[in-house]
Amino acid sequence: MNIVFIGAQGSGKGTQAEMLAPALGGCHIASGDLFREAQNKHTPLGLQVKAYMERGELVPDELTVAMVLERIEQPDCIDGVLLDGFPRTLTQAQKLDIDLQHFKRSIDKVVYLDVSREELLRRLSSRYICQEHQHVYNIVTHPPKVAGICDIDGSELYQRADDTGAAVQKRLDIFFHETIHLLDYYKDQQKLIVVDGNQNIEQVYADILHVLKRDNEDVKVTLPTSATS
Ligand code: AMP
Prior knowledge:
Elements: E1 2-6, H1 13-24, E2 27-30, H2 31-40, H3 44-55, H4 61-72, E3 81-84, H5 90-102, E4 109-114, H6 117-125, E5 127-130, E6 136-138, E7 157-158, H7 165-177, H8 182-188, E8 192-196, H9 201-215, H10 225-228
The protein binds adenosine monophosphate.
């Protein structure tokens, strides 16, 4: 299956996509992670996008689309993709549809995680990610076992500069003024699923699986232990 996750920063779409990827057998592509990786490696793309990211602005469509489509076409994504943070504009969504058509693929479902702005700000103020692989923690609701250290790879946790101050407000404004219009685009295609993202991680996960299975009998899911306990 090819699935798009739409949600504001802090809605939990990255966490859900990461949990669902092994369960559905697809690859998880987070455009923000790809950009941060490019920056950490000081690639030409990383340098090009740095200023946009620091200001909390969207990177131009052309750069974003080229980067994500290149990743989608890799062999490990043949069986399916879970797109997290892409598309964020109508142009990106249209280019994605056209590109997938070339490979006789299409987006099957679009999951919108609906979370109030108040809750998003609360979550973002306590969100930390790890240096090495960008695993996400929340020091209030999902803290690491050892303070400041990633449970999975042992690297240090840090708070993203664009999760605080003016940048975070700008990112939420862009989401609620621009990205939100994608809901109509996918609703018209009858692909949209709306899930209450204000609930805890396990409940949101269960809701997503429930709807995916209800709408598509072919969905084969291997439940991770965290979802069954
Ligand atoms: P994220 O980690 O998804 O919040 O993304 C971090 C930053 O990367 C965003 O604030 C943008 O500057 C950039 N970015 C990520 N995905 C996109 C996208 N689909 N379109 C444009 N810019 C993006």
